[in-house]
UniProtKB/TrEMBL annotation:
This is 2-dehydropantoate 2-reductase. Keywords: NADP, Oxidoreductase, Pantothenate biosynthesis. Transmembrane segments: none annotated. It catalyses: (R)-pantoate + NADP(+) = 2-dehydropantoate + NADPH + H(+). It comes from Flavobacterium muglaense. Catalyzes the NADPH-dependent reduction of ketopantoate into pantoic acid. Pathway: Cofactor biosynthesis; (R)-pantothenate biosynthesis; (R)-pantoate from 3-methyl-2-oxobutanoate: step 2/2.
Length: 312
């Protein structure tokens, strides 16, 4: 019997890593990759395949199945979740007929509360934790552009059976995905969250890319202020992060392509719904809960909230 892996969300993350999986297992009689997509994305992939464009090459891959119909998608052994965080509940409820008691979830969202939200919907299932570092985006339906060479996927669980984790790790390795099975995954996820939350908030508020933030004194000062606020919250929560986490995060930003920006900033510029709740408001709420002041995050939330409200 084949191991069936669903990819929910064919954006920069799901599209890229799902594409690598689909390419690796296109002829496999043991692994089946299923893309869960709708609308223009579904039509484009069904007709022309999923196109991935990187700095060095282009490739086109075809999954075994691309559909949003649960009857076509079928039962899933693993589900890699990579939609926007504001779509978590709606997207997962829509495919509940594909979920069995043995389905293992791997969330690869920008926020940190996804495992808790998924477990609220499917309390009997194994829900892993995970995060990725990559600069990638949709440039057209069924087309993913990856910028730069940096790409890493981290995942793990404090409670999941080790056999489930090892199977998934082997699947990733055979697809040439640089993945790491991490013991203290909650801290790894928070390290990524610190990076992406501060970056998303700063780029969207300032309307600047990475290079502009690094080279502008006031912008860099704001970015560092955001890092100070969110890392203090992490410390108060009891997470054991590196003592130099702020410097490590700045160094990660300096390794990011100068013309890159956050997915939230791209959504703001395009007039689309954006992940303010998960990437900015969540930090403000955590600050209130743990009595940590977050003046920079609050300023950004106050400025960006009206734009998001207008889209709802």
């Amino acid at each position: 019997m084949k191991t069936r892996i669903g990819i929910l969300g064919l954006g920069g993350v799901g599209g890229y890593f799902g594409g690598l999986l689909a390419k690796a297992y296109q002829e496999s009689d043991q692994i089946e990759i299923v893309f869960i997509a709708r609308g223009a994305t579904q039509q484009a992939i069904a007709t022309s395949g999923l196109k991935i464009v990187s700095d060095e090459q282009e490739m086109i891959v075809f999954p075994t199945i691309v559909s949003d119909d649960p009857a076509v998608v079928g039962k899933l052994d693993y589900l890699i979740c990579a939609t926007k965080t504001y779509d978590i509940e709606e997207s997962l409820v829509a495919i509940q007929k594909c979920i069995t008691k043995n389905t293992v979830f791997l969330p690869l969202y920008n926020g940190v509360d996804a495992p808790e939200r998924i477990s609220a919907l499917y309390p009997d299932n194994v829900v892993l934790e995970g995060c990725v570092y990559i600069v990638s985006m949709i440039t057209a339906p069924g087309v993913i552009k990856k910028v730069g060479a940096y790409e890493k996927l981290f995942f793990g669980s404090g409670t999941a059976p080790i056999v489930k984790l090892k199977v998934l790790q082997t699947i990733f390795e055979k697809a040439s995905i640089e993945s790491y099975l991490v013991d203290r995954i909650d801290e790894t996820v928070w390290e990524k969250y610190i990076f992406i939350s501060a970056l998303a908030s700063a780029t969207s508020y300032l309307n600047q890319n990475v290079g502009e933030i690094l080279s502008t004194e006031e912008s860099r000062k704001l970015y560092v202020g955001l890092l100070n606020e969110i890392t203090l919250i992490a410390a108060v929560k009891g997470l054991e992060l590196p003592n130099d986490i702020i410097m490590q995060t700045i160094l990660k930003l300096e390794k990011t392509p100068r013309n890159a920006t956050s997915s939230m900033h791209r959504d703001v510029l395009a007039g689309r719904k954006f992940e303010l709740a998960s990437l900015t408001e969540f930090v403000v709420e955590q600050g209130i809960k743990y009595e940590v002041e977050t003046p920079n995050y609050q300023i950004i939330l106050k400025k960006l909230s009206p734009a998001l409200d207008a889209l709802n």
